[in-house]
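Hi R.,

Here's the chain you asked about this morning:
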Amino acid sequence: MRVNDSPVLPGQGWYPDPAGSARLRFWDGSQWTVHYSDAPSTRPSTAEFWRARLAAWRVAVGVAWVVAIAVASRLALEDRPQFADVAADAWLVLAVFSLPAVVLAIAVVRTPLIFVTTAVVSCASSVINGWSTMRDTHSTAALGVLATPTLGLIIVAIGWGLDVAWRALRRTFRTTA
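And here is the predicted structure, written out as tokens:
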């Protein structure tokens, strides 16, 4: 008795196009069909994602951001009026409360120019508001210590929205070109 010498064909499914395109083509089990599909995009692993987000320059910008807020707030405390209603360690609280905005920006804003712009605008806002909070002669200093980082988070959220819109716009023009 003779065994069938015909080649074993793969089962039906999506396979790389034998013509060499970057798309997938459907094999029905016996022949190639006219159906094509884009190859699935490869997503980076979690480790690759965080490695890209925590690039040294991003961390350096984040550290400079927090240091600028802390230094400006500390300097404002040194030069505050005698009757200012601010605790001596309020500058430290302000810097620590600014950390969520910095960490959020490092994690979600991908476009370098938008990241740096967001960092500069949020930092400048925090420095200006922190300066006025540290020199507050009324009982609203505690409110300023909370409002300043909240404004920083709002600026980061706006930066993230701009980043998402910018990347979507770039994808749109890349696919139509």
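One quick note: The chain is about 60% helix and 10% strand.

Cheers,
M.
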